[in-house]
Amino acid sequence: FYEVNKLLKVFFYGSFLVAFICILEFLIRYYLGFDITYFLLHTKENYAFTLTNKGHVLFRSRAFSTEPIITGLFLSVFIQYLFIDLTRYIRYYSKIFSFKLLKKVFCIWFVIIALLTTGSASSIVVICSGLFLIILRNFYFIIKNFFNEKNNFSYFISITILFILLIPLIILCLYYEPFRTSINIVFDKIFLNSNYNSVAARTSVINDY
After folding, report:
1. Is 176 left (phi over 0), alpha (psi -120 to 50) or beta?
2. pTM of the model
3. Most exposed: 111, 178, 185, 203, by fewest CB within 10 Å?
4. What is the tens place of the pLDDT at every residue in 119-138?
């Protein structure tokens, strides 16, 4: 168990470092126009950008990766781990409303914000799918425990907290111009808007078959 815990700590701090670099890269490049990843070793430059409604240039964060999608998928896996860790904590610990819980919620906020800076549609689909499965699992146990006359309190709390922690992120995406632009692009890609090169490339492969 010691080795497993050590591995989880390395995974956690490494993932948190990537998330921190993504947010820092986004803020400095968006407001100051300087790319801090210039000091990191990459095999290609990060020139992909879009314009917000106010005409600001918006670049996608990539941290240590060559492509933003690679960083986004990595962070999406980390977010699944944080979701599972949060629901496990709520289920097995009696002190639900504690500093430890707030720390877990903050970590989820922080990493999701970092993921939004990558602008990866695939990563958004991954975390939404994972969140849906976790909520579906909790509803399953609520129904099962109801018929078995067992306590459902922890599962209700888990679902409630998962929904509540999404509210600030939704507000941020609605009112913060860069994230609103990023989310619009993500939805365009999810619904296969062919104006984007990545969508056109993937749909052309499907059409060829």
Report:
1. beta
2. 0.84
3. 203
4. 888 888 888 898 889 888 88
